[in-house]
Write a structure and sequence with these properties.
Low-confidence stretches: 1-22, 138-143
Distance between the termini: 25 Å
Organism: Paraburkholderia bryophila
Strand content: 15-25%
Radius of gyration: 19 Å
Oligomer: single chain
Strand order of the largest sheet: 4-3-2-1-6-5
Keywords: Signal
Protein name: PRC-barrel domain-containing protein
Pfam families: PRC
InterPro entries: PRC-brl_dom, PRC_barrel-like_sf
Length: about 140
């Protein structure tokens, strides 16, 4: 499996290099989809830019953590946000998965009503599925 992945990666690098590859920029070059799909992409938003590393506050406006990840269920819906709590310079962080419907957006900020840092730290830590790579769903083609 790893050999096939390496061969595919090498072939992709060779193709890109031979075509003078440049970064894809939405709206400036075709992305391999229909016009409708490209327009939908332009109107969409980036989870990385909009949510990941964004602070999460409680009702007292205390920062209680930050968004670390967003979990997408097999039906393609965002179901949980993984919140990192505590830690210093990336050490000792505690990760908890919180259902998306528990969050509120107020004035462009994420709130978790009734939560505290201590309460989140007391929740059992979230762990990624160790079989994630083996059970990872196939990517859907834009074509």
């Amino acid at each position: 499996m790893k050999a096939n992945t390496l061969i595919c990666a090498a072939a992709l690098v060779a193709i890109c290099a031979s075509q003078g590859a440049v970064a894809q920029v939405a709206g400036l070059q075709p992305l391999g989809g229909t016009v409708e799909q490209t327009n939908a992409l332009l109107k969409g938003w980036s989870v990385r830019r909009a949510l990941v590393d964004e602070p999460v506050y409680n009702d007292l406006n205390d920062k209680i953590g930050s968004i670390y990840d967003v979990i997408i269920s097999p039906d393609r819906k965002a179901t949980y946000a993984v919140v990192s709590v505590g830690g210093f310079l990336g050490m000792g962080k505690h990760y908890v998965a919180i259902a998306i419907d528990h969050f509120e957006i107020r004035d462009g900020n994420l709130f978790l009503p009734g939560a505290t840092k201590d309460a989140l730290k007391s929740v059992p830590e979230f762990e990624y599925n160790k079989l994630e790579k083996a059970t990872k769903p196939h990517k859907v083609s834009a074509n």
